TrEMBL record:
Gene3D superfamilies: LCP protein. It comes from Nocardioides pini. Residues 1-86 are annotated as: Disordered. Residues 23-43 have a biased composition (Polar residues). Keywords: Membrane, Transmembrane, Transmembrane helix. This is LCP family protein. The chain crosses the membrane at residues 92-114. It comes from the Bacteria.
């Protein structure tokens, strides 16, 4: 490059400005000039590029200083939850279906067995008491034995009989005055319409249900609404279908004629023993009067067993009970399934149990008659559907001591 003329504004050679602009070979550069720094040796090797430690984000954000301690442990991620086992739950839609099926079963079984129950014309002819409040059932226990098995007949030492005799005559009343079971002893002397004065059970032997109903109405003035007849088998088979019933004899009872041998106190018995207990009349002092009290005890025990929840929850038991009852009872032709259901309910729960107030017959000390002073009070309470007087309702029909 040609030298530029002096005074052209270009610094002169040799001046610091010139050297700064064009460079200089001077080995003593001015103190403010950019200097080359020789590579320094460190421990016998050249200085290498150093890798600075990576600062945490929090440190960099706070000027390179670690965050102050807070005294809290950093939260750790929760462990994975174990998978819950899925429980099987019935669908709610199935519950109404199950209830409907249960209802159909509970109603269908007795309706089916209703078709197998024998019906009898029990309506008497002639004048009868007018209809009365409440409902009155005449319960008759006959010696009908054609529904017994061969093994049962052998145990009872009896053959097939058509049911011409009755040991049990009970009027069961239900109404606003409460429930009352009144036994009429079979040895009661009364007027049998068309046949003079006889023991009341003779009416059953003479003309069956109609004449017996008429005789009871003539004796008591109580209008009989429905008739229910129980044979030997009804007691035995029904008790066995329930798995037994509880009886509570007040003394040891051994009666060979009734084939009975039980100890004093409450105990569970089978059908044969329950029947023998209700038929025995040769052990206690009042004979037939004590027997009618035991008959009511067995019938009430059957009613209590029938209303236990297990009867309705166990389909096998429910079927067996209906099967046993249907094969061993007879009812009047005017009774329908609803009436029979009401009768079954009437036999359960608390009720007053009485024997017709009675005295020994003047003509025969082995026979009895209705007590003319005390019996009308009991008859009238049933007729009018009012509360039965306590003194008119005793287990044997005799005055309380």
């Amino acid at each position: 490059m040609a030298d530029r003329p002096q005074g052209s504004g270009v610094p002169e050679k040799g001046t610091p400005e010139y050297d700064w602009l064009y460079g200089s070979q001077s080995k003593n550069p001015p103190s403010d000039a950019t200097q080359r720094v020789e590579a320094q040796q460190q421990r016998g090797r050249t200085d290498e590029t150093r890798v600075m430690p990576v600062a945490r984000r929090e440190a960099r954000g706070s000027g390179g200083q670690p965050p102050p301690a807070t005294g809290r442990t950093p939260a750790t991620a929760p462990p994975p939850r174990p998978k819950k086992k899925r429980r099987w739950r019935p669908r709610l839609a199935l519950i109404p279906l199950v209830l409907v099926l249960l209802l159909v079963y509970l109603l269908g079984v007795p309706l089916y067995h209703w078709t197998k129950i024998d019906k009898v014309d029990a309506a008497p002819s002639g004048d009868r008491p007018a209809d009365q409040p409440g409902t009155n059932y005449l319960i008759v226990g006959s010696d009908k034995a054609d529904d017994l098995t061969d093994e049962q007949r052998k145990a009872l030492q009896t053959g097939e009989r058509g049911g011409t005799n009755t040991d049990t005559i009970i009027v069961l009343h239900t109404g606003s005055g409460g429930r009352t079971m009144m036994s009429i002893p079979r040895d009661t002397l009364t007027e049998v319409p068309g046949h003079g004065t006889q023991m009341i059970n003779a009416a059953f032997a003479i003309d069956g249900a109609p004449l017996l109903v008429s005789s009871v109405e003539k004796l008591t003035g109580i209008h009989i609404d429905h008739y229910v007849e129980l044979g030997f088998g009804s007691v035995i088979n029904t008790v066995d279908a329930f798995g037994g019933v509880e009886i509570c004899p007040k003394q040891d009872m051994k009666d060979p004629m009734a084939r009975l041998d039980v100890k004093k106190g409450c105990q569970e018995v089978d059908g044969l023993t329950a029947l023998a207990y209700s038929r025995s009349r040769h052990v206690t002092a009042l004979s037939d009067l004590d027997r009618v009290a035991r008959q009511r005890e067995v019938i009430s025990a059957l009613g209590d067993e029938a209303m236990t929840p297990w009867t309705f929850l166990n389909p096998v038991r429910y079927w067996r009970i209906n099967e046993a009852a249907a094969g061993a009872i007879r009812v009047d032709e005017e009774m329908n399934p609803i009436d029979l259901g009401r009768f079954a309910l009437a036999m359960t729960g608390e009720s007053k149990t009485c024997t017709m107030p009675n005295l020994s017959a003047p003509s025969d000390p082995n026979r009895i008659i209705a007590d003319p002073d005390r019996a009308p009070a009991l008859f009238d309470a049933i007729i009018e559907d009012t509360k039965v007087p306590a003194k008119a309702c005793t287990p044997t029909g005799r005055p309380r001591q």
